[in-house]
Amino acid sequence: MSAVTSQNETRRFYLKEDLLASFVVFLVALPLSLGLALVAGYPFEKAAAVGLISGAIGGVVVGFFSGCPLQVSGAANGAAVTVAAFASELGFEALGLIVMLAGVIQLAGGALRLGPVFRAVSPALIQGMLAGIGILIFASQFHVMVDDTPPGTGKEFGGVINLWSISDAVLKGFTVDAHRPAALIGLVTIGLIVLWNDRAPRMLKMVPAPLVGVGVATFIAWRFGFDVKYVPAPDRLIDAISFPDTASFARVSEGAIWIAALTLAFVSGAESLLTATAVDAMQRHTPRTRYNKELIAQGVGNFLCGAIGVLPVSGVIVRSSANVMAGARTRLSTMLHGVWILLFITMLPDVLRMIPVASLAAVLVYAGAKLIKLGFLRNLWQQDRAEAGIYVVTLGMVVATDVLTGIAVGVALALARLLYTFSTLEISVEEDKESGKTEINLRGAATFIRLPQLASALEALSPDAHIQVHLHDLNYIDHACLDLLLSWHQQHQSAGGELTIDWDELHGLFQQKAWGDGNGVARMAAT
Fold it and tell me: Which of 406, 419, 435, 504 is most buried by a 10 A CB count?
């Protein structure tokens, strides 16, 4: 009986923690869901509802199936920018089909147990992609923050145009009467976010900074009657939903549609699974992520989002970290935050109509800037300049062209770098003629591609030389090169020479099980 009582008390404790966490995450998700639908290019009059419905699906549906219970899904930066590009290139009416197909691809990937594959993507590529997306969001929303239209919208090199013309937005915000109130709202929002993050009293730290910024900016706009754009909200939730029609499904055979769906599935999957990994590192309350299950959950969510024509979902680090830090213990917190979003949009649409668009844009300007992690690039440059190059090139291509091209170029560079790494072998030979000893240092990767090079270096040595082979700078050696070393050892020994190899220098890649038996035959095994 006492065990049952204890279990019930634990459940009540978790319910209390999850309720608090769900409300905190709801407050974090509210301004981001609203703003990211505007980034994605959905019609202005339904964008707010579209973003919030996505948040509700990410919470209730994805949260229920999730392989990472404390991860929170919803409208995300990468997916929003990707969708904006597809809307411009393929038409807004194709988005529902693209999102549905992306969900199907993710479902198939999870069923085929490909979830962990997304984790194998180079961190430099992922961070470069996210930084590029951050710049695109920053550049476009800076113009929206002064109640202006981004000049690069729908144009080739639109991201570059928006970035280059930020000075024009600044000038309008300071000098043009029609844009000055919105600029003031934007500055107040960003200032409060920064101030709250740095100076908020400990007792109020759980209140999200973006909510404080938007809340105060909304009050100022209402109190002084600012003539700015406000968030539109439909009177009925059903008005924000648009089902793909027959004409949309007829485009399922188009290659461009499938490329778009594959791109969205990759971007959403990568964001979700990398966020899940981060959540695992932040908490110890739940089991570690089941990546295939998480990919299936994202697929279910995106299929549903596409079916009703709303913004696709991904795991989001800002909301997920807020969930963990607020003390969530089970998936209930994620699911409840989706319920609160749904209740808010159905019961309080008039509150939405009071929020200035410039304030939401300011939240996204701040969020976009945070995605550009210069510290990550600095550390990468110090550790591996080739990886830093992949980061910079991926970022540049995302901004100059689009997310798909940036990913493609980044993957190509990563593969080229991998091929170079595993096809480069440096062999240095140092001979001491007085002692008759020869030192051979191998650096890089000893693979079958470099087998002739290694064989030539060995054959050029004196038959009776005393040779020491150093492997401490070797990062990989395949069976072909190992077999060459073993065979050459026997030949060299029979000719009166001596060969010594310190297998411990391979840093655990290989372990010498036995070197030489009574007949002089060498044996070793890979660990």
Answer: 406
Encode burial over 348-380: b for 16+ CB neighbours within 10 A, e otherwise: ebeebeebbbbbbbbbbbbbbeebbeeebbeeb
Q: How confident is the model at residue 527 (pLDDT cuts 50, 70, 90)?
A: very low
> For the chain, first and last CA: distance in Å?
51
* Tokens standing for residue 33: 């869901």
Measured CA to CA, the distance from residue 119 to residue 139 in angstroms comes to 29
Question: Rounded to an integer, what distance in angstroms lies between the CA atom of residue 479 and that of residue 482?
Answer: 5
Q: What token pair was written down for 321?
A: 């970290």
Q: Contact 195/223 with Cβ under 8 angstroms?
A: no
The two three-digit tokens of residue 18, written as one number? 């999850």
Backbone angles phi, psi at 512, to 5 degrees: -80, 115
Q: What is the pLDDT of residue 192?
A: 96
Distance between CA atoms of 50 and 63, rounded to whole angstroms?
Answer: 19
Q: Is 186 helix (H, G, I), strand (E, B) or coil?
A: helix
Dist CA 138 CA 371 (whole Å): 10
Q: What is the DSSP string of 224-276?
A: TT----B----SSGGGG-----HHHHGGGG-HHHHHHHHHHHHHHHHHHHHHH
- Per-residue pLDDT, averaged over 226-247, amounts to 83
Edge to edge, the sheet with strand 466-477 lists: 425-432, 437-446, 466-477, 498-501
Residues linked to residue 356 through DSSP beta bridges, in sequence order: 230
* Residue carrying structure tokens 């309350």: 285
Q: Give the 3-state secondary structure of residue 496.
A: coil
Contact call for residues 63 and 301 (beta carbons, < 8 A): no
CA-CA distance, 397 to 91, in Å (whole number)?
Answer: 22
Residue located via tokens 């461009």: 256
**pLDDT surpasses 50 at 362:** yes
Q: Read off the pLDDT of residues 84-114 as tens digits, 9 standing for 90 and up.
A: 888 888 888 899 999 999 999 999 999 999 9
Supply the angle between the helices 2-39 and 209-223 in degrees, to the nearest 10.
50
Q: How many helices (H) and strands (E) does the chain have?
A: 22, 8
Record the tokens describing residue 432, joined without a space.
């001491």
Interatomic CA distance for residues 205 and 172, integer angstroms: 35
Q: What is the pLDDT of residues 373-416, one digit of tens each?
A: 888 899 989 988 889 999 999 999 999 988 878 888 988 998 88
Is residue 403 within 8 A of residue 129, CB to CB? The reply is yes
- Residues near 164 by beta carbon (within 8 Å), at least 6 away in sequence: none
In which residue are the tokens 């059903």 written?
Answer: 238
Q: How far apart are alpha carbons 140 and 151 in whole angstroms?
A: 8
pLDDT classification of 504: cutoffs 50, 70, 90: low
Which tokens in the block code for residue 77? Answer: 């930066």
